[in-house]
Amino acid sequence: MQDKILILDFGSQYTQLIARRVRELNVYCEIHPFSKFEITPDVKGVILSGGPCSVLDEGSPDMDMEELGELPVLGICYGAQLLVKKNGGTVAKSNHREYGRANLKTVDSHFDLLKEIEIGSQVWMSHGDTITNLPDKFQLISATESIPVAAYKIEGKPVYGIQFHPEVTHTTQGKIVLRNFVVHICGASQDWTPDIFVEETVANLKKQLGDDKVVLGLSGGVDSSVAAMLIHQAIGKNLYCIFVDNGLLRKDEFEGVLKSYEGLGLNVKGVDAKSRFYDELKGASDPEKKRKIIGRVFIEVFDEEAKSIKDVKWLGQGTIYPDVIESVSVNGPSVTIKSHHNVGGLPAKMNLKVVEPLNTLFKDEVRNVGRSLEIPDFILGRHPFPGPGLGIRILSDITPEKVRILQDVDAIFINGLKEEGLYDEVWQAGAMLLPVQSVGVMGDERTYENVVALRAVASLDGMTADWVHLPYEFLGRISNKIINQVKGVNRVVYDISSKPPATIEWE
Ligand SMILES: Nc1ncnc2c1ncn2[C@@H]1O[C@H](COP(=O)(O)OP(=O)(O)OP(=O)(O)O)[C@@H](O)[C@H]1O
Ligand SMILES: O=c1[nH]c(=O)c2[nH+]cn([C@@H]3O[C@H](COP(=O)(O)O)[C@@H](O)[C@H]3O)c2[nH]1
Ligand SMILES: NC(=O)CC[C@H](N)C(=O)O
Ligand SMILES: [Mg+2]
Fold first, then answer.
1. Which atom of ligand 1 is nearest to the CA of 225?
2. Which ligand 1 atom lies nearest to the CA of residue 363?
3. Domain named GMPS ATP-PPase: which ranges (predicted)?
4. Cβ 160 vs Cβ 74: under 8 Å
5. What confidence score (pLDDT) does residue 489 get?
6. Which end of the chain has a smaller Cβ tally under 10 Å, C or N?
7. Residues tagged active-site
8. Predicted ipTM of the assembly
9. How far is the CA of 331 from the centre of ligand 4 (A)?
């Protein structure tokens, strides 16, 4: 059994980052709401996240620490303040928030938590409340210029608290702090590697699926390709892959994707459902409504395909962790951002049970698992493309004509990136068709046509992203080409927003 670190979420915007940092230590971890978790024998330690609430407010998130037994605990920010308050110490509201860089003024390196951490080390703060008095039996480990308690330990127990955020990169020695806790204090073994993940997952899938048949939605994307190869290793010919043309794919993508799977040993069937999706989407322009329609029609198509194969019990999907995190508030107080078609967009009643072997992994981890499965680079290197496809990049109701325009624009942009060697430097790129017309002039004639926006982002896992500084000359060439070649477009703009506060897709 794999050792596990449990991260209890109090709603911090950094909770996912804690998970990433722990996994970078090759230790498996899971995020659960502070109010709903289970302590199983594989849990080696618990991290209490930060959170937007104040422990001083009535009804703020609270939990019974007894439930954690004798396990090592690390409270970060809100988590640290909560431990102090519950043990009779003082947390005080201060007049101003401390946000940003600070430096550790004192460090008692006798304590394992801050071993190897230097005096003066830069840490990242984000709090309004301050721990002003430690309870009895709490030992001070560190302070900064502005706060008396930056880190503490409960005497005789492996329970620690820190006011700063070790998970953000601005805390320059943050990784060491987390390693000290996870590896030295919790004793978690660092053996969570892609190879082990494949081995364990295939074994579990064999047990879970037995001789059952599975239909899997295969999209040509990274996630479903990796999911397909994992399930294929477990059940072989009982896996039936279905690639649906929902009429919202990229230009010539249907044929291209089907071709790219030749030689991988998978049983792949292409299903043309274009007109069905267009019919169902007619007149819908609300983003969440469109996602839900697309999610439902996908499932209907999968269901029908399953019926024609007979005795199929399961639907396989390439759902990954961020799809789950953003679609449903699994994370306690975090809010729903958008209903990813394959999670929040699923209909309430389904005939098939869902199997999603990647739903605890981040994108870059999925790619590493794909490498371990020896999936070719041209599949693993593809930019992510959302299941609802161009449907959520047309910012109004969907018509085949709008899809045609956007496909042509997108193809010029993506091919341009490939031709000029920029594709691999970008994490994801695409074009949006805006619901506005603008005036232009072409060959002495007035035009009144569509505006498109181009977007290219850099990211690691899609949870945060920054816009890419594509060369002006490149953008100029692409803009010219689009306006000259795509009938119906007379203006091109470039999106320079980061995530947060924007998201990658516009809908
Ligand atoms: N056209 C499609 N046909 C069949 N299944 C699809 C299609 N598009 C999406 N899906 C299903 O929905 C899941 C989620 O889509 P998503 O785009 O997040 O993942 P992906 O396409 O596998 O990978 P990537 O994020 O790299 O595009 C897929 O893993 C797949 O199971
Ligand atoms: O399969 C999907 N179904 C969806 O409904 C969906 N919405 C967003 N995405 C993709 O998720 C990543 C993060 O997107 P956002 O920053 O727009 O939330 C980006 O990679 C998006 O392309 C989706 N993928
Ligand atoms: N980042 C945090 O956990 C902040 C905790 C608490 N809301 C404070 O302002 O002090
Ligand atoms: Mg995709």
1. 22
2. 25
3. 192-382
4. yes
5. 97
6. N
7. 77, 165, 167
8. 0.89
9. 24
